[in-house]
Amino acid sequence: MKYDAILFDLDGTLTDSQEGILRSIQYALGKSGIVENEVDKLVPFIGPPLAESFREVYSMDPEQVEQTVAYYQEYFAVKGMYENTVYPGIEELLAELADRGKYLAVATSKPIFFSEKIIDHFSLTKYFQAIVGAHLEGKHSGKEEIIGTILSGIPHIPASRVVMVGDRKFDIHGAQAHGIDVIAAGYGYGADEELAAAGPTHIAGSITELRSLLLGY
């Protein structure tokens, strides 16, 4: 197996969190006076920092962004984070990688407060040596910075032996900034065109393909 350290994104890579995230966004927008009935329009919100998406898509000023993110967290903390499922085959893959002594970490733009709760809720915490996410107020939410934090904790593992697995261009670009390989999770929320344009090392269209890339069979 080529890789000694595998970094996983959370949403769209380890878990199918679309339902909870989209309901939380709809709730937040509604509280902010924006009615968004076309849920499909909100799918691109899954992955990048939430504040960034609210600012760019709805032209919100900093105060509006802060308040809308707070509304999002209001719903997500109670219901949204649990409207979520682990992709079939993921836990078995994590267990086998852990049994082989691989360093496993979660690198997510989701606030660490929620990320740890979700991972623990699904009894996946035992597989990871590190879980790194953003602060609740949105600081340190860029994927490049998050990946860098994890890499700084494993200086003994060469970059050539590290891989990032994620479903959006932000995961791919973040990994490329650090010179590590990246596997695009084509089964997640990133469009095929988005992933191909970002230039990942590999694209896994399914958990079975991801397993083959990571385990060699």
Automatic annotation (TrEMBL):
InterPro entries: HAD-like_hydrolase_sf, HAD-like_sf, HAD_2, HAD_sf, PGP-like_dom2. SUPFAM superfamilies: HAD-like (SSF56784). It holds the Pfam family HAD_2. One of its GO terms (molecular function) is protein tyrosine kinase activity. GO terms for cellular component: cytosol. Gene3D superfamilies: HAD superfamily/HAD-like, Putative phosphatase, domain 2. This is Phosphoglycolate phosphatase. It comes from Propionispora hippei DSM 15287.
